[in-house]
Structures are given as structure tokens and as C-alpha cells.
User: Which sequence fits this backbone?
């Protein structure tokens, strides 16, 4: 019997309890032991709930109980999740978490504490919800040197962008609908500004490249400026707009970036719709691979957390090594990153193209029937700084979006 | 230093040598030890090749050398691969393989020998080439009860079907082109008749459901009867034809089947093109997930084999448990499996529909501009046996293909 404690009985925490109850038979077989939830830590009581007898309000109880071998942290936020995680590890308990904010900020330290004590700190659910990606990166893609990770890592923004593309709705409208359907929070900033995706690509990149990528170093741009007109242009050229979180090795350097990007059907991420997430990976011998699934939601996320619990149960007193050193990975300045850019401008091609060509050289042009008084062009690949210089010389710019095809 | 031997210096075997050379630095970090290839077993000599000094012709040398801890079996075929694998395990060496034929036929026995001796028998490359799927199934999807696996598991057939769809070419023509481009073997039977996909779905199903699925029990139908006309009908209804290998839990029963299936854009497998493979999995708490990548090819397959070598190196003298018991999983008789069916018939709707409706009830009809003197209909879901009964009463049937939407 392995006794565990769940910190936080919110969406994911209650999902963890439900998954362990629903699949207890098969989970116990795979863990080669019986997993029992002894405590649920929450500020609230849950009278009438099956866990009511297990609820405690004081972390000390869990910390002091030597029977607890695994702690599930599904509280979210940095504090007190960080303090509780650290105390749990120092008390000899392994910790599984869905908390990307905490992993991105304190992952190296917590992994080191776990390693020093032959314990485990696991965080499969922190990226891509239920999609198995952390463990495959760490223990399957070991023959490769990974040179790209590009993901649709945030279900809320992908839902909004899909809605806008399907219904022709505007951003505000699609956001409201996402909120009504429970796909966006009342304060949606972390999702729509790309902060959530930024933390996830920081975690994935740290694991893939073996050195710590600070999320603060990652250029991050959300989807709030995307309009229904932008989407019409994208559709005209057979593209969709996705919030991509990407990191790439270019020569001996790395860059990382979160931003809306136009992609077309040649990209396996093109058909990832709604709240689904997907992570594309390129390895130097593997070539292309993609992992797709439910990027959020109570049960899919809980599925990933419980898979970590099973792995911790199979590795009590034995650290599963993660190649994530505290050595900092220096990222290339964003100005030197090369991209193609889509630019929407007011005016007519007849009047504007000469100036545009004089600044950007050869460009493709796009116009959308029904959108008059404006058009768009797509540049060749150029450094971001050069593009910014160019665009500052142009009047009437309505939007700029990176293009990857 | 961990010394290994590679059995068979063909496509995959030479890929393994290449991958270990190319990425030796990162591989040694992840294995936490230095991996060195001591022997390459082959009937041939390779003068001038970097491995020429390592080539041996007699397996006894490898078996008798206590320095060899890991054996890579990339010979293919059942014999002598089976005998060598067994002897290697009995001599205390872990074995990694890409040999799906061997794993499907003798997997349970070889896993048991490995388990009894705290060794490992690993076979990530046996299904889906470079796509990490065996290890995720075994160690990531542990919180779930899996109730469906459906894969495009054979790159050759997917290349042929993609070619036919893109170019409008006929099967024979597309097969010839696949052979010219090295995507199909001179004797293509194992691929085009679905035997290869059959073994792979047997392996994946055994792992997912924990009981042994015999590949001999799986209804298997290849793609040789698919015509360019069938593909035109599929395109008319927004579908593509894929060779799907599938196994599903229905109530308390399981079925497994390999056959061409029409799927549409709502299926994540729809956009898997050319030699790429993908495996869709549904778990009772995870929901939908898909794994996509290079299903074959020298380096992608070698990437998966070497990932197994790394895992074996991390688990010397410690068995990584696989839930694949020798208890047989009884499959539902194929006649009771329920599917929708597409049927192409000679004649006109005016003349034939009354009879068709009297046999099959309500059906959808499809006709393709330019294909005169014939049309098609799609049935509702019905048991396979009932469909076969019905179809035997109908004249002029040109093709029948399962439909999944």
C-alpha cells in the first residue's frame, strides 16, 4: 500500500481523486502496489463528498506523516505551492504536479532536491495536459539531438482562434464564448497574452536541450490583436493562424518565441482544432514527430498526474533522472531570429507597392474580396530587427503576423 | 563503458551504428555511461567500412563474451532471430529489437525470460518506426484504461494510397513507383496485404489491454483491391482511404481488424500523408491522443532502437515491467463487429435503389461525375456478417470499403 496526499481539491485535484477511484484496479496493477489517497489538503471542507474524511487544512499533517510517500500538488500558483513542494521533498516524499508556473520558475531547484534524495519530482501534466510529452522527451527521444519543438500548448487560445476561423467572429466575441463554455477563465490574461504557453515551452525546451531556459527570456506575444480580417486573409492563402510556442536550434544557437503564426496544410499542426493541443518535435535522426491530444480539462490533466503517481510508485527511493541542468541556456536576441511576415496595410497596391518593394524587396501580395481599402503582403525570411526597421517606415500598417511556410 | 553487439548490418543495423556514432556525446550523457559497439554480426564482411574490425560471423562469440551487456537484434525474420534473442537473454544480456514479426510471435516468452532474469527485452522500433509509442503506452498511459488503438502503421501502403489520391494513379502504378523510390520492397506482400500492420496492432493491443493478442486472430485485409475509382468516390464525400489497423473494446469484448477504411477530416488520422505513420489512442480518462511521425526509414527506426539501448543501459540488472501477460485475449468474431460500409455497384440508382433499400434499409448514395454506369451507397452501422449476407444478394458489386464517420 502506497499512501498519497493531494494538495488542492480544485478541478485537477478532484480529477486526480476521480481517476484513482475509477481506474483503481488497473492503476494498482501498473503501480505493482495499491495506491491509497490518505489526505486531501484544502482550505475548504467538502461535506457529503467521498473525500470529506480525508480533508485536512494544515500541510504540517501531511509533512509529518511518514506513511505519505507521494504528494500530488494541484494547487497552482507559486506560493505556497513552492514551499509545500520543497517541504514534501525534504521530508522524503516524491511530488507530482500539474503546476507549470512552479515548474518553469523552480523546476531545476526542485529536481535537484529530489535527485539528491533519490526521490522524484514529476510534472507530466504541466505541458500539454493529458498528452504524454515530458516522459517521452526524457526517456524515449534519448537517441536524438532535438533541434526544434513547436507546440500549440494552450487550449483556450486555440479554441478562440478556431472559433474565429469557423464563425468569422471577432476576438472579443470568441473570448466571451470561450468564457461562457468554461474554456477561458474570467481573468484570461495568462492564456490570451501567451504567458501560459511561454512557461510550457520554457519547460519543454529545458528538457529537450538539457540546459535551463528561463521563461522570462522568451519573446512572448498573445493573440489579442488578431482580428477577423486577419483570419480572412489567412484563409485566402490556405492558412490558419495558431498561437505557436517554439524553440529552435539554429547553428550553435537557440531561440524561443511565443506568437501567433500563419501555417498551412503542410504543417502537421495545421489541423489541430479547438481545445486540442499538439507538440511537434524534430530530432536530428528521428526527423518529424508530433504528439496530439487534450491539452487541458479535468480528466485528461488528471490522467497525466496519475501516470506520474504510478511512475513515482514504481520508483520509490530511486530517482528517475531528468537532463535539465541549472546551467542557463543563452537565447539568441529576438532581433536576430529570421521569420517571414504577413503585413496588412491600408491603401491600394497601386499606390503602396513601390514603397513596400523598396523597403522589403520581393514580396507576395494578398487581397481579400470584400475587404477594400487595404491589402496585405508577405515578406521573404528576414531578421526580426530588420523587419521592425522596415515596418516603422510604413504608414497604415494594420497588423503583422509571422508566417511559417 | 557498456559494450553492445548489433545483429545484422542491414538498413536498420547500419542505422543503429550511425546514430550511436553521430550522437555519441548526448547518448552517453543520457545513458549515464559510454555505449560502445564491440561486435557487428553479419554473414558478410564490410571491407573499408568503419565497422570492418568489429564484424563477426558467429553468434557464439557474442553469446560467450561477458562484456556484452546489450544485444541489438536488427536481423528481421523469425529465425535465427528468435534463437539468438533467446540465447542472448539466457546469457544475461538485454535485447533491443525492431523485429515486429518476432515480437508478435514470441514476445510474451521473450519478455518472461527477461523478467525472470532482471534483464530487458525492448521493442520500441517494432511499431511506428521512430514514433515513441511502446514506451508511452507502457509507462505514460498508466492511469487510463485504453479502449481503442487505431493506427496507420505501414508507411508503404500509406505512400501508395496517398500517391493514388494525389495523382489519380492506379494501385499497380503507385506500387511500382513506391518500389522505384525504395518505399516498397520487391516482394511487397507483407505490406500491401496488411500482414505487417497486423503484427503491429497485435503488439500494441497486447500492451494496451495487458493480455496477449495473437496476430493470427486478427481479421486482415490489404489494399490491393483499392482502385482509383474508389478514391474518386472517397474524395467526392471529403474522405480519404487509409489502411487502418484497429482494436477496440466494445462493452466487455475486444475486436481487432486491419482493413482499408474511409475517414474524413474529423478524424486526426485523415491528414497523415505519404510514408508517415500515426497511432490514435483513446483512454477512458485521457480521451483522444495521437502520436505521429516517421513510421519507417533507416534513421528514424534506428532512433527508436537506440532509445531502447539507452533505456537498457539505465536499467542494467533491473527489469522494466511490461504488462503483457501470456493470457490470451479472446477476440470477438469478426462477423459481430459493427461497421458502416461503402459499396460501389454497377447500374443506375433508378434501377437498383429499391432492392438496395430492401436489403440494407436507409443508405446514403454517392455518384461521381464522369463515372457513369455505376454509383455507390453507404450503409448505416451493421454487423459485418449481416452486411456480408446482404451484399451476397446484390449483383454488380464493384467494391466494398469500411467507413468510419
Assistant:
Amino acid at each position: 500500500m502506497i499512501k498519497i496526499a493531494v494538495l488542492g481539491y480544485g478541478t485537477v485535484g478532484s480529477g486526480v481523486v476521480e481517476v484513482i477511484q475509477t481506474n483503481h484496479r488497473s492503476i494498482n496493477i501498473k503501480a505493482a502496489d495499491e495506491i491509497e489517497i490518505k489526505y486531501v489538503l484544502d482550505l475548504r471542507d467538502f461535506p457529503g463528498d467521498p473525500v470529506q474524511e480525508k480533508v485536512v487544512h494544515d500541510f504540517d499533517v501531511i509533512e509529518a506523516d511518514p506513511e505519505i510517500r507521494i504528494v500530488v500538488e494541484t494547487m497552482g500558483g507559486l506560493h505556497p505551492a513552492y514551499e509545500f513542494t520543497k517541504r514534501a521533498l525534504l521530508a522524503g516524499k516524491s511530488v507530482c504536479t500539474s503546476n507549470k508556473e512552479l515548474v518553469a520558475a523552480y523546476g531545476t531547484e526542485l529536481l535537484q532536491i529530489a535527485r539528491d534524495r533519490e526521490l522524484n519530482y514529476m510534472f507530466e501534466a504541466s505541458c500539454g495536459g493529458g498528452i504524454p510529452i515530458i516522459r517521452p522527451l526524457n526517456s524515449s527521444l534519448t537517441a536524438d539531438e532535438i533541434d526544434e519543438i513547436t507546440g500549440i500548448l494552450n487550449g483556450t487560445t486555440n479554441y478562440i482562434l478556431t472559433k474565429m476561423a469557423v464563425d468569422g467572429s471577432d476576438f472579443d466575441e470568441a473570448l466571451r464564448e470561450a468564457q461562457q463554455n468554461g474554456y477561458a477563465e474570467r481573468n484570461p490574461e495568462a492564456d490570451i497574452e501567451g504567458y501560459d504557453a511561454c512557461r510550457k515551452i520554457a519547460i519543454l525546451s529545458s528538457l529537450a536541450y538539457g540546459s535551463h531556459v528561463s521563461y522570462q527570456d522568451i519573446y512572448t506575444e498573445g493573440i489579442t490583436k488578431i482580428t477577423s480580417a486577419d483570419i480572412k486573409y489567412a484563409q485566402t492563402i490556405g492558412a490558419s493562424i495558431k498561437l505557436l510556442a517554439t524553440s529552435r536550434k539554429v547553428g550553435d544557437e537557440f531561440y524561443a518565441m511565443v506568437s501567433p503564426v500563419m501555417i498551412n496544410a503542410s504543417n502537421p499542426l495545421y489541423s489541430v482544432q479547438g481545445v486540442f493541443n499538439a507538440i511537434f518535435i524534430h530530432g536530428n535522426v528521428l526527423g518529424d514527430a508530433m504528439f496530439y491530444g487534450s491539452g487541458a480539462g479535468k480528466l485528461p490533466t488528471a490522467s497525466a498526474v496519475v501516470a506520474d503517481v504510478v511512475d513515482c510508485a514504481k520508483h520509490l527511493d530511486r530517482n528517475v533522472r531528468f537532463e535539465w541542468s541549472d546551467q542557463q541556456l543563452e537565447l539568441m536576441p529576438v532581433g536576430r531570429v529570421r521569420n517571414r511576415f504577413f503585413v496588412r496595410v491600408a491603401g491600394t497596391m497601386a499606390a503602396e507597392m513601390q514603397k513596400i518593394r523598396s523597403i522589403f524587396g520581393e514580396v507576395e501580395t494578398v487581397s481579400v474580396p470584400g475587404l477594400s481599402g487595404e491589402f496585405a503582403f508577405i515578406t521573404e525570411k528576414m531578421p526580426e530587427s530588420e523587419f521592425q526597421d522596415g515596418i516603422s517606415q510604413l504608414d497604415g500598417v494594420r497588423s503583422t503576423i509571422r508566417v511559417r511556410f
